[in-house]
Amino acid sequence: MNIPADLKYAQSHEWARLADDGLVTVGISDHAQEALGDIVFLELPQVGRKVAAGEECAVVESVKAASDIYAPIGGEVVAVNQAAADAPESVNQDAYAAWLFKLKPDNAAELDKLLDAAAYAKVAAEG
Amino acid sequence: MAKQTPLYKTHVRLGGKLVDFAGWDMPLHYGSQVEEHHQVRRDAGMFDVSHMLAIDLEGAGAHDLLHKLIANNVDKLTVPGRALYSCMLNPQGGVIDDLIVYFFRPDFYRVVVNAGTADKDFAWISQHAGSVAVKPRRDLAMIAVQGPNARAKTWAALPGSEAASTALKPFHAAWFGDALIARTGYTGEDGFELMIPAERAEATWNALLAAGVKPAGLGARDTLRLEAGMALYGQDMDEQTSPLEAGLAWTVDLAAPRDFIGKSALAGRRPEKQTLGLLLTDKGVLRAHQKVFAAQGEGEITSGTFSPSMSRSIALARLPAAVAAGDTVEVEIRDKRLKATVVKPPFVRNGKVLV
What we know:
The complex is a heterodimer.
Chain A: E1 8-9, E2 14-18, E3 24-28, H1 30-36, E4 39-43, E5 50-51, E6 56-62, E7 66-70, E8 75-80, H2 82-86, H3 89-93, E9 101-105, H4 117-125
Antiparallel strand pairs in A: 1-2, 2-3, 3-9, 4-6, 5-8, 6-7, 8-9
Chain B: H1 8-13, E1 17-21, E2 24-29, H2 33-42, E3 45-48, E4 53-58, H3 62-69, E5 83-89, E6 95-105, E7 108-113, H4 118-128, E8 133-136, E9 140-146, H5 150-157, H6 161-165, E10 173-176, E11 179-182, E12 191-197, H7 201-210, E13 214-215, H8 218-227, H9 263-267, E14 273-280, E15 291-294, E16 297-307, E17 312-320, E18 328-333, E19 336-343, E20 348-349, E21 352-353
Parallel strand pairs in B: 3-13
Antiparallel strand pairs in B: 1-2, 3-9, 4-7, 4-8, 5-6, 6-7, 9-12, 10-11, 11-12, 14-17, 14-19, 15-16, 15-18, 16-17, 18-19, 20-21
Helix pairs in contact in B: 2-8, 5-7
């Protein structure tokens, strides 16, 4: 299972990466894309939308089913990955390259509440 | 504990992602559902459909029994091996199941029914059978080999099968030793459905694999059948649905003088709904149970998916009878209403997009 050590993870299978510019990039884990199967549609949030931690803010649809994506931390959506929306299969190909959206965090310390790679590996192993 | 087909271990060995389907452990896919879909449209794929049940009807009353039990007319079956698709109805005209019946002799037919309804079907048929022997054939495995190259690859895989089945027209079957080769399927492609003794299932599967037929799971089976405009029992119709509203009027023989269970209920009622296809013009994915808003009233999607062959979303929907192909409707997806065009199914047949 591919779970990069430098990322933070939510129980609901999103990953988050804090960059030097203070923005947090969000995507879904390799485990999540594997479980969803062939991804065919991404519904991404409006840029400018303010979200709370745990709020539904995107949808990933595979051939099988639609799956809600939750904001791992609170903040404002400052960018969405239109290239991924135009080629949803890119999430299957590399879930850590095909990010979904970027947040300007309200409080970057919220990242500390997320799981590290080792803790997420246990969550993923359970399903 | 879920039931397992004779090919269960083969699916595990091939890396199939197994899921519960109607109480059976069945492969959803073996890696990529979309690739398996394309494999069937472009070349040849195979499905384990051994969870479905073959039921043999033997005895002097077999013909009369089917006359009474199914909505299509078995009198259409005059050549041995001829197959017929039909619904089996309850007295209210609802669909107990959809099935394929194979004719061998007036005193010998085989029906193949869905996995999820097999027990109920067997009980219903037995209840009406009188002196006809009703034999469930769990000793058989069933493999559907589908795609433009399916027949040629089956012939390459199974020595002697070509001579037995080369003359078969669509919806005809022939014996190949103790196996039955039927030119039928549920994908909109050419191909065979093979019914073979369970103990030979694995060897047959492996021979097909060696001939270049790739395994495909239930996921691809669903997108293929939906593109082909074929109804799925439990989703597009059930015991509360009239076949006349489920797009299956072509399978109901109301014209002939014979009576059958459900006939009077259907004959006395004008359908208020109809089943047509939807093509999503906006981006998104149509799914079962989404609401449809037409100028003539509301409807509901019964099956929806992303079509790998068309790279857009398609659906079957139950719509008001006045809606016509070419109309634009709106579908409620989450908090939005997206536009879709009404079309007459099928969407795809024999590798070609038709809408």
